[in-house]
Amino acid sequence: MDKKIGFGIVGCGIIAETHAKYIKEISDAELLAVAGRDAQKTKLFAEKFGIKHTYTDYREMHKRADIEIVSICTPSGSHADITIDAAKNKKNVIVEKPMDITLEKADEMINACKKNNVKLGIIFQLRFADECARLKKLLDEGKLGKIILADLYMKFYRAPEYYKKSSWKGTKKGDGGGALMNQGIHGIDLLQWFIGPVKSIQGLTGALRHEGIEVEDTAVSILEFKNGAYGVIEGTTSVYPDLSQRIEIHGTNGSAILKGSEWPEINYCEFLDKKEKFEIKKYDSEAVMFGIPHRRQLEDMIAAVRENREPMVNGIEGRKSLEIIMNIYESSKTGKKVLL
Q1: pLDDT, tens digit, for every residue of 108-141?
Q2: Same-domain pairing of 249 and 298
Q3: Distance spanning both ends of the chain, measured CA to CA
Q4: Does residue 237 sit in the same domain as residue 179?
Q5: H-state helical runs in 116-221
């Protein structure tokens, strides 16, 4: 058996725990080190996950010869700096969404990894969920015909404490955006993966509920895709109760609805030509299935390193949803339609 792939994690928050848990479960991976700004918090994190080495400076961790992949789980606005330093130290990088909070920073990350001949993967784990892959295949095969409408609804709720207890959430410097950039980017990634590139965007965003935040808690936008389809995006952290993410796709030969935020499932699909009947599959609860897509994406990253290929969601792919969001913000700011 090949030697295990050494991992280091930067960050000690909730999402870092998800990465640590599933890295530890992968038989050909070894979690060697963790870096965090708070020495005590980093030490407790390391003890919880059986990690031998701790750092308060990620740059020191990046110098380790036994680490091949760095997993970045820090505030969004810090991703580029950490990625670029890791790449300079010849480390492959897998980074949580969004890859950073500007397209300029995203491009710097892509270029640094290319220059140093290392892999860059962006966490969009829902692409690895069974029903998302199933819907993608159905669309690629043209089962719904020519797509007419593709709509994304992400009506989520976050209590005031969500922002008040965080030093970076809801800030332009740390978060870069709100309901779209932090929560909604997963759905936006799926929508553009399913339907293809966007031609134009009209957007409207604002903070309609939460006081004191610098970013949007409510957003709506109208899209025109390059294939001629129209679409709508609604994203919030402002409406109660928190509703599951929903993607509705309508074509000349039928419709499909994908519902769920952590483990989406196709709960409706019907074809006009009646040539086949779509089987609705049942799974365990989202709570039970949570984490499976994350583990699959980490496994794909390991395989990409071993096989010297691109990860399924590389930097170019990870940039696409960020570009859509940035142009929704631009349209809202100027009051004009934006052409991509």
Answers
A1: 999 999 999 999 999 999 999 999 999 999 999 9
A2: no
A3: 47
A4: yes
A5: 130-140, 160-164, 185-195
- 47 and 139 in a single domain? The answer is no
Is residue 83 domain-shared with residue 195, that is, in the same domain? Answer: no
Written as six digits, the tokens of 180 are 């779209």
Q: Looking at the chain, how many residues does it have?
A: 340
β-partners of residue 223 are: 201, 231
d(CA 110, CA 125): 19
User: Would you state the pLDDT for residue 2?
Assistant: 77
- Helix ranges (H only) for the chain are 14-25, 39-49, 58-61, 79-88, 103-115, 130-140, 160-164, 185-195, 286-289, 292-307, 315-334
User: Are residue 201 and residue 67 in the same domain, yes or no?
Assistant: no
Domain count, the chain: 2
Owning domain of residue 118 = 5-124+293-313
8 Å CB contact between 250 and 144: yes
Instruction: Give the largest Cα separation in the chain, rounded.
Output: 62
